[in-house]
Every structure is written in structure tokens, then in C-alpha cells.
Amino acid sequence: MKATSNKYVDHSVRRLVFTYILILLIAYSVVNIKIINKMNPSELLTKVLVVQATRLLNILNQNSTFTDSIITIQPRVNKSNSNPSFSMSVKFGCNGIEAMLIYASAVAAFPASWERKLLGISAGIVLIHIGNILRLTILGFVGVYYPKLFEYFHIYVLQGMMIAFALVIFFTYLHFNATKTS
User: Fold this and answer.
1) How far is CA 22 from CA 62, 78, 161, in A?
2) Which residue has the higher pLDDT, 83 or 92?
3) Which residues contact 177 (CB under 8 A, 6 or more apart)?
């Protein structure tokens, strides 16, 4: 009896991994299709993210503007006049679309009703987007006030935090899904 349950578990895990990879490949293909104004969804997301991060920086008393996917911050109080402004460019890997696709693919591949999957995907994508707005805002502050630490924070600290944040959201979804089915 134990052998059959292991076969079932092994088959279920293989099916879950296969489904996850298939959904992820399809999602990445869809993201690269040009749609509105000859832009793909990733470019649209980048524009929305840049506008929202710039607004948040302005709310936090940082004189910020944007052009295309570049955010420029003119600090109100500048300790040294050698570098009066800071600019950062938001590119494909910085817009959160990869984290969203990985998260959404994992939720879609996991066994649950489509209603729960859609709710989990929608809530998770919104939370990842909000987390990314906060990440860009923090990067803006680091770039203005601690420019030597910008690359370190960008590559190691905040990127790792976004991955951890997406995992926490996924585990929360799994917990929510398990408690609803129990």
C-alpha cells in the first residue's frame, strides 16, 4: 500500500512541476507580445510603476520627475553639491513582472478551484506590485543619500527581499487555500 501512495505522490509532484513550467513558458510568451500602442505588458507595467514610484517619492518630500522609464530625484537638502540629482532606469527585471509571472504560474499550477486561483493570483500580483513600488522608493532614497550603497541595495538587499516577499505571499496563499478546503 505504501508503494502505491508513493507512486501517486511522485506522479502528483511531476504533474505539478510540469504544469508549473508549462504555464510559466506560456506566461513569458504572452508578456512579450506587443499589444496596446505597440508595447508589451511588461513595458506598460514599467510605465505604471515609474509613475507610481515617482508620486510616492514626491509624497515623501523628494522632488522627483520621470521621463519614459527613468526616475530623477532632486534632493531638497543636499549635503554635497557634487551630485545634486540621482536618476535610475527601470528595466525589464526591475518592474516586477518576473516575480508576478513566477508567482501566478505557481498558483495556477497548484491544485485549487479556479475561483481561488484567480483570487490568489490577483491579490498576489497587487501585493507584489505594491512591494515593488516600495522597493523603487527605497532605492531612490539610497541613491540620493547613500549613492555608494545603491548597487549593493539594488542587487543584493532589495532583490532578495522581493523574492522573499513573493514567497511569503505564495505560502500565505497555500495556507489560505488549505484552510478553506479543510
Assistant:
1) 43, 50, 26
2) 92
3) 110, 112, 116, 120
The gap from C-alpha 143 to its chain's centroid, in whole angstroms, comes to 20
Give the residues across from 67 on adjacent strands: 70
Domain that holds residue 25: 2-181
Q: Which three cell numbers stand for residue 27?
A: 506566461
pLDDT at 12: 75
Number of domains in the chain: 1
How far is the C-alpha of 140 from the C-alpha of 142, rounded, in Å?
5
Q: How far apart are CA 15 and CA 54, in angstroms?
A: 43
DSSP structural state of residue 38: G
Q: Which of the four pLDDT bands, split at 50, 70 and 90, describes residue 1?
A: very low
Q: Which three cell numbers stand for residue 134?
A: 516600495
Q: What is the mean pLDDT of residues 79-95?
A: 78
DSSP 125-181: HHHHHHHHHHHHHHHHHHHHH-GGGHHHIIIIIHHHHHHHHHHHHHHHHHHHHHHHH
According to the model, what pLDDT value does residue 83 have?
55
For 144-167, what is each residue's pLDDT tens digit? 999 999 999 999 999 889 989 999
Task: Tell me the three-class secondary structure of 88-129, residue by residue.
Answer: EECCHHHCCHHHHHHHHHHHHHCCCCHHHHHHHHHHHHHHHH
Maximum Cα interatomic distance, the chain, rounded to a whole number of Å: 75
Type and span of the H or E element at 86:
strand 86-89
